[in-house]
Amino acid sequence: MSMTQVYPWCSWFKDGRTSLQDEPRSGRPNTANNDWNTARVDELIKVDRRVKLKEISLKLDIPKTNVYEIVHDKLGSRKICARWVPKMLSDEHKRQRVEISQILLHWCQQEGDETVDVGPGGDHRVRNKLLEHLITGDETWLHLRTPKTKRDSMTWL
């Protein structure tokens, strides 16, 4: 920290300041981060998951920094592998995962285990019947066009 930053802090604490938190001060209040704008941003993302923060900012006439705060802090999304993904699963998503896991567990218990000898390392238990029928992964669509850049192909989830 430079001395030009230290001097004002010293004078503030000599004058009686006791908190390190940023206290309210005069100036223009932040009015862009409200429920109405949050709903508008959420709607734009649902319509086009490849929309960029800059495009949202221009369409809604909201500063890009505020759009970023709405998307990351209020909507709880982040971009991963060109898609916006919620940081936290909704209760509905959690319920669906539990139901599917219970179905797979029940099916796995009915099918039973088969023992497979895998080389000199010894015996490994493998659920062959289950693995023959169960494939996990994400659905991927391949288009006949190549996006301009990876950034252009990013989507919101």
UniProtKB/TrEMBL annotation:
Entry's PANTHER family?
MARINER MOS1 TRANSPOSASE-LIKE PROTEIN
One GO molecular-function entry = nucleic acid binding
Protein name, as recorded: Histone-lysine N-methyltransferase SETMAR
